[in-house]
Design goal:
This protein has a single domain, classed as Hypothetical upf0131 protein ytfp, CATH 3.10.490.10. A hairpin with a 3-residue loop joins strand 3 and strand 4. The chain has a 5-stranded mixed beta sheet. The protein contains 2 helices and 8 strands. It is globular. By secondary structure, the chain is mainly beta. The longest helix has 11 residues.
Length: 122
């Protein structure tokens, strides 16, 4: 089992939520205020530890087999698994933007919103 912070399509109601294989949500949380938050081609969000924004997400205690067999294979090339800091100082796994993509023209900075669902409903 591993704590994972989801902030995009894997959240409740999102198109990738089924990848969690029924894992219950522990709660809605925020990241620590140290990230930049991007929309990638308006398809999915990406966090990067190079800013001052908080990101809204959901926390799950996910079986590692679900991470290995369902979540990781569904991730786009721009993202990788990393460890982020939560608002309460704790740590969790999360999908984060690979450094190689930080200057991509496919990124729109949505750090001022910090919330994928809020961005989609703009």
């Amino acid at each position: 089992m591993a704590l994972i912070f989801l902030n995009g399509g894997g959240m409740q109601g999102g198109p990738l939520h089924g990848q969690l294989q029924g894992t219950p949500m522990l709660g809605r949380v925020k990241s620590a205020p140290k990230y930049r938050y991007f929309s990638v081609r308006d398809e999915f969000p990406a966090m990067h530890a190079s800013g001052t924004a908080q990101v809204v997400g959901e926390l799950y205690d996910l079986p590692l087999t679900v991470l290995r067999d369902h979540l990781v294979p569904a991730e786009p090339a721009e993202l990788e698994i990393g460890v982020i800091e939560l608002e309460d100082g704790g740590a969790a796994l999360a999908t984060v933007l690979r450094n190689d993509f930080l200057h991509s023209s496919d990124l729109t900075d949505i750090s001022h919103l910090g919330d994928w669902n809020l961005y989609l409903n703009r």
